Amino acid sequence: MRRILTYAQIENRFESFIYGQNDEPNRPPPVRQKHLVNNLISGSAAQKLLLFQVLPLIFYDVIDRLNDLMWIYKCLREIVSIVFSTKIRKSWLPYLSSLTNSFHSLMLDKLPDQITAKVHFITHYPELIRRNGPPRNYWCQRFEGKHLYFKKLALRSSNFKNISFTLAKRHQLRLSWLLSHDCFYNLNDKSISTKFIKALELPIDTKRLLVRHKFDYPVYEECQTLIHNHVKFMRNSVFITKLLYQEEIPEFVLLRHILKVEKSWILIVQHLQTVSFDETLWSYEISYLEQLSVMNLDECINILPHGLDIYSLNDAYFVNVLTRLTV
Predict the structure, then answer these.
(1) Is residue 1 part of a domain?
(2) What backbone phi and psi angles, to 5 degrees, belong to 227?
(3) Which position among 51, 207, 242, 262 has the lowest Cβ density within 10 Å, counted as fewest Cβ atoms?
(4) Residues spanned by the domain of 106
(5) How far is 204 from 129, CA to CA, in rounded Å?
(6) CATH number of the domain bearing residue 221
(7) Of 179, 204, 235, which one is at a domain's C-terminal end?
(8) Number of structural domains the chain divides into
(9) Antiparallel, parallel or unpaired: β 283-295 and 264-278
(10) For 125, left (φ over 0), alpha (ψ -120 to 50), or beta?
(11) HSE, side-chain direction, 13 A CA sphere, residue 319
(12) Do 30 and 145 share a structural domain?
């Protein structure tokens, strides 16, 4: 027993951690002492995945004291980064095979009592990917999401005489309503928290940028959140615009404003500099630049089709990316 933190301190770490606006919808439930004692963390698959992702950020000041156990996390984190990628190169598969074998060996050596069948199944992932492509295209998460709807519906309806008929009827009614909606087939941009803002109310650097791009208007329509092609753009979110050099270092931008100009939405972004990749936190350390740019919606989702959050630790800023990136 290392006795690094007490159960009360661990519970407090989980409860006091502030999740970013993009991660908040999948915020995991509180982790109690009974969960740690019984080795059973509650929550959905998405919540557990987020907890696994931000674990080094929650325990950033004691993570280096875990020593050999930290190697297990790093090995599994790198496996997850490849397996969950939207694009996987064939050249990654031999390396993935060595990672899965290393993880299997580490679990047998360090945590033999925690071995499950999944620890062995993970060694078959490289061959599975070679035959069928990225697992994201055929994973069971969508089935679990659909199943969750039926489970909630069964509890809320409180009708168990003919549960199959109840679920089928409610699902058909819901599907009919969705199909009759105007935007079901036509993907229209959906803005949330929209308001009109005068040009004088914008920051001076933003106003100069708009004038330089010939978007000089007295009043603009601005929104806090915009849904475009099923991607949610929220102010103060981070997006990846491109990958630099042979190492494919991500170039990050921070979304400052979402403005409507000439019946189309544009993004005012602030560029971020990628300082380094912190292997302990498994996050990119970034710094703010004074450079602003105007981008369209599709420029920000070519690499990763969702927003990211910035976490501050010890006067430094980090962006946690789950998947390995490539083009």
Answers:
(1) no
(2) -105, 115
(3) 262
(4) 7-137
(5) 50
(6) 2.30.30
(7) 179
(8) 3
(9) antiparallel
(10) alpha
(11) 26
(12) no
* CB of 257 closer than 8 Å to CB of 267: yes
Is the same domain home to 227 and 286? yes
Please indicate, yes or no, whether residues 83 and 155 belong to a single structural domain of this protein.
no
- φ, ψ of residue 295 to 5 degrees: the values are -130, 155
Copy the structure tokens of residue 26. Answer: 């999948």
Which pair of tokens denotes residue 249?
């270092």
The pLDDT tens digits of the residues spanning 20-66 come to: 999 999 999 988 888 888 888 888 888 999 999 999 999 998 888 87
Q: Decide if 294 contacts 241 (C-beta within 8 A).
A: no
Q: SS in 3 state form for the chain?
A: CCCCCCHHHHHHHHHHCCCCCCCHHHCCCCCCHHHHHCCCCCCCHHHHHHHHHHHHHHCCCCHHHCCHHHHHHHHHHHHHHHHCCCCCCHHHHHHHHHHHHHHHHHHHHHCHHHCCHHHHHHHHHHHHHHHHCCHHHCCCHHHHHHHHHHHHHHHHHCCCCCHHHHHHHHHHHHHHHHHCCCCCCCCCCEEEEEEEEEHHHCCHHHHHHHHHCCCCCCEEEEEEEEEECCEEEECCCEEEEEEECCCCEEEEEEEEEEEEECCEEEEEEEEEEEEEEECCCCEEEEEEEEEEEEECHHHHCCCCCCCECEEEECCEEEECCCCCCCC
Token representation of residue 245 = 């050099």
The answer to whether residues 171 and 265 belong to one domain is: no
**Radius of gyration over every alpha carbon of the chain, rounded to an integer in angstroms:** 23
Question: pLDDT digits over 109-152, tens only?
Answer: 988 888 889 999 999 999 999 999 999 888 888 888 888 889 88
Q: In terms of domains, do 109 and 48 share one?
A: yes
Q: Which two tokens stand for residue 100?
A: 């899965």
Per-residue pLDDT band for 185 (boundaries 50, 70, 90) equals low
Domain termination site, one of 156, 179, 202: 179
